[in-house]
Amino acid sequence: MPLLVCRTCPRYDTHRTGQFGHALLAALATHPGADGITVRSVQCLGGCPRDGVVAVDGPGKTRVRFAGLTPGDAEAILEAARAHDASPSGDPADWVVPGGLETRISSVTVKRAPSA
Q: Which of 20, 23, 27, 98 would give a disulfide with 9, using CB separation of 3.0 to 4.6 Å?
């Protein structure tokens, strides 16, 4: 279950660029609930200018992007990754978005079915 973390947030604040990703990755690395979750640091998730961006994703599943997060949201982010993974479609209507994250969904991307 991929959890994607933006490594450039906040992208447009040259003095703080990348701080969110480093801090969240550190919080996730020491969190006991992170076992079994694949965390990928990615260049950008397109949530600018609202920084603190992560996404839950998976093969054939809807990608759900969250923005306005902090390292203090690590537990809710891990809960979201697990719930998304257990969902058949990944669509937020098919899983319980952890409290506090439902208002921070910034994008829902439904993937196309593979062409025959």
A: 20
Three-class SS string for 79-94? HHHHHHHHCCCCCHHH
pLDDT in tens, 31-77: 887 888 888 899 888 888 888 999 999 999 999 999 999 999 999 99
Helix (H, G, I), strand (E, B) or coil at 37: coil
Q: Which two tokens stand for residue 39?
A: 């965390």
Q: Give the sheet arrangement for strand 105-109, strand by strand.
A: 38-42, 2-6, 54-56, 63-66, 105-109
Of the candidates 9, 106, 93, the residue with the CA atom closest to the CA atom of residue 51: 9
CB 43 within 8 A of CB 78: no
Q: Which two tokens mark 63? A: 């990608």
Other Cβ atoms closer than 10 A to 12:
11
Distances (CA, A) of 10 to 4, 5, 27, 90, 116: 15, 12, 17, 27, 40
